[in-house]
Amino acid sequence: MTPLPKQKMTKARGRKRRSHEALTKVTLTECPQCGSKKLPHQVCHTCGTYKGQQVLVIAAKKTK
Ligand SMILES: [Zn+2]
């Protein structure tokens, strides 16, 4: 026997619970060095800079 709900779940009750399930949009800022979109307070993955300083060595782009 599969477990069965004792009471009917009303539409409103289910919807009220799902009112907290919305996803938040990812905030993206522009890199001051290369202008590509990046996450705020994080190293740019395109040029490897943070606060104008080179912190990562980005390997040259692969050519297809
Ligand atoms: Zn950049």
How many beta-strand runs?
A: 4
Q: Indicate the mean pLDDT.
A: 91
* Rg, nearest Å: 23 Å
Which structural class is indicated by helix and strand composition? alpha+beta
Strand order of the largest sheet: 1-2
Task: Give the overall silhouette.
Answer: elongated
Helix content: 10-25%
Fold blueprint:
Elements lengths: L10 H8 L10 E2 L6 E2 L10 E2 L2 E2 L10
Antiparallel strand pairs: 1-2, 3-4
What does this molecule look like?
This protein is of the alpha+beta class and 64 residues long. The chain has a domain at 27-59. It has one helix and four strands. The strands form two sheets. Strands 1-2 form a two-stranded antiparallel sheet. The protein is elongated. Residues 31, 33-34, 36, 44, 46-47, 49 line the site of zinc ion (ZN).
Quick synopsis:
With 64 residues, this protein is of the alpha+beta class. Helix content is 12%, strand content 12%.
Which tags fit this structure?
about 60 residues, alpha+beta, two-stranded antiparallel sheet, two-stranded antiparallel ribbon, 4 strands, binds zinc ion
